[in-house]
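Weekly structure sync, notes
Attendees: PL (lead), two postdocs, one rotation student
Agenda item 3: pending single-chain targets
PL asked that the sequence for the first pending target be pasted directly into the notes so everyone works from the same version. It is reproduced below exactly as submitted, 262 residues in total.
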Amino acid sequence: MEEVADPVNSVTLTLHDDKQCALWDCMRVHADGSRYCCIPHMDFALAERTIQRPHNMANVRSFIQLDKLVIPKLVNHLRNPALGITGISNLQHLNVLNASPLDQHIRFPTDLDEREEFNIWVFIWRFVPNRQLWRQGNDTRRGNYVRTRFYRLFPAVGGTSWRLFRYTINSNTVALYAMEYCKSLAHPPPVVGVYYRRTCVNASDGVEYLNSATVTDLHSSKNKTEQNEMHSEFLANKGVQHHTPARDLMAYSDGMISPELV
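Predicted structure, written out during the meeting:
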């Protein structure tokens, strides 16, 4: 569905860039005679483009959502300014990607709340990041723009991760960037492998089926050999292998879901 009404807020949402409000993260249909859905969003866009820091989105949108829903709109608006001002900051005159983000805490804060797992920043900058900090990876053609992955060369802290993507617009002087920081989870939720099998045995009064299940934590490297052995054994016996987070754990038997939690 490309357009949907929101009865609570009395607005209509759309996936069409040319119909959306110009504010970078708004998916509402713009008002007649305007590039914005309302005056406050126009004011936000005009004000936010002057902020000399990247937009900060801690646990707001996942990178997949950003890449699919927001980036194409930003690229189109930057290629065609007549579509309206999005509010994304142009930081090409600042030392943003020539220094490690770890040394720019005001621009790239990493002190996330305990409930927050990642932070994403979006901004406009010059075409080439510092090659001593970011190694350029592969280019991917995405319609009318090119996405380039960059890999971190500066040391990370405590298992945290960083990734950087550049979206080339229409010149080799400036580009759109999205950078993501993910903190290390001290105790990641276990991913459990459940191996569940029905075994046919001979009984005095006919055929009997015995059910058996084995559970292992797939996060633990010491279980790799155990996993491989179990996997081969149960495939040979036409068993069912099922990986799922522990909170959603269900038993499987011959492809049928058991109503009982393991």
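Discussion points:
- The chain has two domains: 12-182, 191-257.
- The longest strand covers residues 191-203.
Action: rotation student to compare against the earlier draft before next sync.
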